[in-house]
Design brief:
mainly alpha; globular
């Protein structure tokens, strides 16, 4: 029950005794962003995600961590998805496009921050913020009509992080992440049509 969970997280975070953990504050932001993405009503969806961004942004200001920067990147990703729904015309379409670009830039920035912190800490989950950051950067490159570039060292680090996770503590996301990374490489190299059959087979 996401609505009730959010209500209880609010009560905990706003309690006068200040006993709620930072984890509770992080999870309140995370659940607001997730609920926002699931709402069909765009203004209501934006309100939830924008509140999530404001709350997570304050936590990052206090102390940036891999988790907080990644959650903030994820909230902006959900805002991009909301802004991408439906078709508008005229001035509204231009405003929506500008909003998407701004959210994409913020998504790339915060996933990039999370990736940098993960590298500095030699974290096991480097692949998660890196893969999402690469996705945002590629999308921005195409929308801004400029060449998409992927640093070889960066891609190697993400591949090694994914391979390590898939070997040591495999779950769905670490295994499928290797295929997703090959999708991003193919998109950047403009070879997706040539490799789509093999990639679809791997996903299947």
């Amino acid at each position: 029950d996401v609505d009730k969970a959010i209500d209880w997280y609010r009560i905990a975070v706003h309690a006068d005794d200040g006993s709620a953990s930072f984890k509770a504050a992080e999870e309140l932001g995370n659940q607001l962003a997730r609920r926002g993405e699931s709402k069909a009503d765009a203004p209501a969806a934006r309100r939830d995600v924008e509140e999530a961004i404001a709350r997570l942004g304050k936590l990052v200001e206090i102390q940036p961590t891999v988790e907080r920067e990644a959650l903030l990147g994820s909230a902006y990703k959900r805002l991009v998805m909301i802004e991408s729904r439906g078709a508008a015309a005229g001035a509204r379409a231009r405003a929506d496009a500008a909003g998407r670009l701004a959210a994409l830039r913020a998504m790339a920035l915060h996933y990039g921050n999370a990736e940098r912190l993960a590298r500095e800490a030699n974290a096991d989950n480097l692949y998660y913020p890196a893969k999402n950051g690469i996705s945002a950067e590629l999308t921005l490159a195409f929308l801004e009509r400029r060449p998409a570039e992927l640093a070889v060292e960066r891609m190697r680090a993400v591949q090694e992080s994914l391979a390590r996770a898939a070997s040591q503590s495999p779950d769905f996301w670490s295994v499928v992440g290797l295929i997703e990374l090959r999708v991003l490489e193919a998109v950047a190299a403009q070879r997706l049509a040539d490799t789509s059959g093999a990639l679809i087979a791997e996903f299947s």
